[in-house]
Amino acid sequence: MINVIGLGYIGLPTALMLASHGVEVVGTDYNKKLVETLNAGKTTFQEEGLDDLFAEAVKSGIRFTTEYQSTDTYIISVPTPYDKFSKKVDTEFVISAVKSVLEKCLPGSIIVIESTISPGTMDKYIKTTVEEAGLKVGDDVHLVHAPERIMSGHMLNELLHNNRTIGAYSNVIGEKIKELYMNFCDGEIVVTDIKTAEMTKVVENTYRAVNIAFANELAKICRHDGMDVYEIIRICNMHPRVNILQPGPGVGGHCISVDPWFLVGDYPSLAKVIDESMRTNDGMPDFVLNRIYEIMKEKGMTDVSRVGLYGLTYKENVDDIRESPTLQLLESQQRHLATGLKVYDPYIKDNVVENQLHSLDEFLDSIDMIVIMVKHDEIKENAKKLADKTVLDCHNFLQIPGAYHI
Ligand code: SAJ
Q1: Which CATH class name applies to 2-192?
Q2: Is pLDDT of 336 > 90?
Q3: How remote is the CA of residue 256 from the centroid of ligand 1, in Å?
Q4: Which of 226, 318, 334 is nearest to 285 (CA)?
Q5: Closest atom, ligand 1, to C-alpha of 284
């Protein structure tokens, strides 16, 4: 039996996928409410195909509990945030999960860490946690790092088909866990050492963060001198070896906006490009806020409550608001002791911020200027309704004549 610890954005789909492919799975989470919701037959977030997969996994016998199980294989997928001051990975949740596993696990158990960890974390913190419990790594307990690569909005498809990396101290154990993932994953699975696996995961997200920062920096340069960044990127990308990403209002989510900081925290005198890139991306919500004021001034608008932010999530067509640029922008506005911007997102039904509206028409009726923070399909389908609005399209996505850009 596999005990999956942490039933969030990664742990839940992984547990369901294993169960629906015939593996005996128990899902454990310390959040009682979350476990109750799952046991009541409901999923805890929206994701294409998740409800069907959930039904299938339940039929195959998956169970959910707050208790750690006594078994021989564990997959830990709890959050690893970064410490806002040191920028280093915060391993508190992973270590506490490992400690709880050690109290229950059978001799020779394999503990797989799926959570993103910075290079050296397994050696420095997790191995030592096992040793402090009086157990021997490679004998009493085996450690594996199997970072995930799935993306909100495409999770199930990517779980099935993405290539994966598995890092282990012993090749035999690495291969054993590879077989476990091969129950559902038809991508190529590379078995390597632990530190390489830790580093590849962080590097993948850093690569993307740096490239997004480059696009954002180009947007700022072009704005400064009245050049069209989108046309420039389009033409540059016709070069056979150039592929520039798109500028945007900032970078959200729990990966690209977080993981690269681990490298800055661990190698502050070496990770210079990464450090600057992260600051560039983190500065984008402020840049958008400035654009809003610039455009309001140009239009003679004075009432900020007639301006609305469209989209609260960190990316399009998902209900995930973690680290979202809109939240960052609102926070920044509050730091300047200002409020009043209206907010609307079709995917967020609860009230999570001030001045949040819950119907598109009501939102549009209450504003003169709309700021497109997220590329949800809904707004593209309703673009006609924006005819009398001032539009700041932060993704150059609606192609409305006369729209402003970042
Ligand atoms: N963004 C831009 N410009 C772009 C592309 C994206 O501003 O050209 C912004 C998006 O609007 C969003 C953010 O970046 O706010 C991140 O979005 P994303 O869709 O690129 O990535 P995530 O965070 O959903 O998922 C990433 C993926 N990693 C990579 O693409 C290298 C995914 O494969 C990982 O599994 C995931 O992080 C993770 O768990 O680490």
Answers
A1: alpha beta
A2: no
A3: 6
A4: 334
A5: 7
